[in-house]
Amino acid sequence: MKKRVAIFISGGGSNMVRLVEDMADPNHAAEPVLVLANSAEASGLAKAKSMGVPVVSVDHRPFKGDRRAFEAALQAELDKVSPDILCLAGFMRVLTEGFVAPWEGKMLNIHPSLLPKYKGLHTHARALEAGDADHGCTVHMVTPLLDDGPILGQARIPVQQGDTPDTLAARVLTQEHRLYPACLRRFAAGDTTRVDL
Ligand code: GRF
Predict the structure, then answer these.
(1) Is the dihedral of CA 111, 115, 116, 121 positive or negative?
(2) What number does the ligand 1 atom closest to the CA of 9 have?
(3) Residue 61 gets which letter from DSSP?
(4) Which of 8, 88, 109, 110 to mutate to test the pocket of ligand 1 (most atoms within 8 A of CB)?
(5) Under a CB-based contact definition with an 8 Å cutoff, are residues 8 and 86 in contact?
């Protein structure tokens, strides 16, 4: 039986597209069963639909900051498809311990820095400000602490002369598209050996 994967997005979903493309391989141990966005305007939803993956949106705004109620609505959508694995792919809502705890060991996230450096936002600008020689991205298991769980893989790139946050973000995103599918493929097969690109 293939592992059932749900993917949470907030925007364009380029990482989601790479995960779904990779799971099209019959030898992959997992299959996508849902793409969920926290806004109906997320352009990644149309991409997922065109790839034949069921989609749904649960807008966080009507909940007016009531995280528990928003997360209950998220969980209700997940319960309809019973996923084994949950992938956060550019999902920009911070999830509380109440939502994360039952998913611990089954939820992955991609973060655009070499964790534990630069948890949170604006990772590319912070790496440049610090004068770092290299930068990159990380796939990690999600725990209640933000951007903190066990690392499944990292991809490292050199920071180049003249880099701006945008040029750095673009090169890191290219690595994200290699790293996340590689980590999910291994994780779904029960292998948590670290991936280093
Ligand atoms: C990626 O850089 C991801 O690391 C970050 O948000 C961006 C989303 O990209 N959390 P996409 O929606 O997957 O294209």
Answers:
(1) negative
(2) 12
(3) G
(4) 110
(5) yes
